[in-house]
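Translate sequence into structure tokens.
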Amino acid sequence: MLYEFNETFFFFLRKLLTKENFAFVRFSDGELDILQNLYVELSADRVQRGSEYLSVPSYPVEDHKIFDPTQENHQKSRELLLEALQFCKKNYFKGLSCPCCVPHERVKQLWELHGDRDTEHIVWANQFVNSNYVYFLQHIYKVIKDRQDVILIGNESIDLPAVDLQVKEFFSVGYNCFVNDRNLIEQIKEYIVQHNINNHLFLFSAASLSEILIYELYKDFPHNTYIDIGTTLHKQLGLSISRDYLQAYWQREPHPDLHKRCVHPLMGLPGKGS
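Result follows.
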């Protein structure tokens, strides 16, 4: 099992350098809320989780979304998200919330949904941020820039010509993509088949839709690499850098997150870790 935060980063870096294909999906607070069937809204005038109204809204427009558990179409996305969490396959790595970043009870709830399976593939949802973010920019971003086979899935506001990557194909997503852009599953599968896409690098920055897409693609086409990069390349893609770790790094401000070595998601759970 991969227990050390920084060492596991280099585990993934080696896979990229040797072009060993793998998948990396991420499940944190937002995904857990959906999996628990809670109403979720991030908009210009509210941040709502279930019946609870949270902090003053500060999310950029590309993060705005609604998950309404009463809507059948929303439930379809939720079902696929649960499949993505519980799916097991060689080199399919699942990043889960860690007890140093979210309340321990939330970590336990996510694990209960996952089930007692496939522990050797459990890593951190924060795998490429916090104290690994500097390594990500120094090493993985360099690898990405050198590759000519990058397939990017991200927000429609990305100015692709201004992106310093050799993007072979770009699939854009819009508002509430978790529900509204689920059709990308079949579109990307058709693209892979029609163009005989093998040993390519797929990068996803499409909220919780990333997990569904990576699951569906790796299930059928494991001969490519699929990575949920989250917000790590927002600066390079011309998107908001509102997240704390991004502001701290790019504005050169001290912040504890940039030095944080996260505790493994399973540490502290009965029979898992310490």
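Note: The chain has a mean pLDDT of 93.
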